[in-house]
Sequence to fold (306 residues):
Amino acid sequence: MAATVPAILVRDLRKSYGGFQAVRGIDFEVAQGEVFGLLGPNGAGKTTTVEILEGYRNRDGGIVSVLGHDPERRLRDLRKRIGIVLQTSGMYRHVTVREALAHWARFYPHPRDVDEVLSLAGLDEKRDALARTLSGGQMRRLDFGLALVGDPELIFLDEPTTGFDPAARRAAWDVVRSLQELGKTVLITTHYLDEAQALCDRVAIIKEGRIVASGPPAELGASSSIYTVAWRSPESGTIESRQVDDPTALLHQLTSAALARGESIVDLSVTRPSLEDVYLELTTEPVADESEAEPSESESQEVADV
Ligand code: ATP
Fold:
């Protein structure tokens, strides 16, 4: 496949559960070798989108291409080229970690070396432990390992570090970074903005089934034209701050005043909104239009049996 063909292409994707529109016409592309994050509050439509891309769920409308194929066709060849870490798993309980990986590897034409995957997933010490004896975080590492062992080109990570302790999170981040170094494409959903900031080349923020912002995490904040300039006031001794479109004039004023007094400016900072600021601003605004009813139990539907 030519390098210019996106690994994932989504155009006007739509999905309803009964009368409830969970995904309301979203567009995005993920380039090959890119780590792309889908962010959004609970119920925003992230998992629905990812399940459609994985071929676990059918869409109602729009175009979806994953590694050049429509995932709805559930081609076996496509399944072998993608790796999936689901939100919950526990498929292997009664075998050892190494046996689980070795077993799963057999379904793929060109699997990675199982011992290498054990190391990548940080499971060297647990290789001979029964999967059911693993802690929650270790189980997630096994999920990672299972997603990697087939040496897929594209990896879906649905909230990969939920429930991890800080050390396990950092270890999981290292796994994602090593995937990136291997040239893999990664689509990650997460609630953790620091995770998105640390790992993702680009993110899309979803709210109520629509993408409300997208771009590199650093640029999402930077796209705001507002700078906050803060400094410690020499008169009151407290921190003062001002929001400005262009900080040049204010900085000039502050520095010349300080130089004239023969003093330094203390605690000076010039900041733009962080990804978290942008996220909170975008996802807590009320949405004006279309009040759809929540789906009823009976409308809960299909997860295709693949
Ligand atoms: P979370 O961050 O909580 O995992 P999400 O962004 O992944 O949320 P989805 O799981 O895609 O959100 O859900 C989007 C909306 O669709 C929610 O309102 C949810 O209740 C609804 N929904 C999801 N799956 C079904 C289903 N099988 N049947 C009916 N409604 C569903």
User: Anything to note?
Assistant: The pocket of adenosine-5'-triphosphate is lined by residues 17, 22, 40, 42-48, 295, 299-301 (CB under 6 Å).
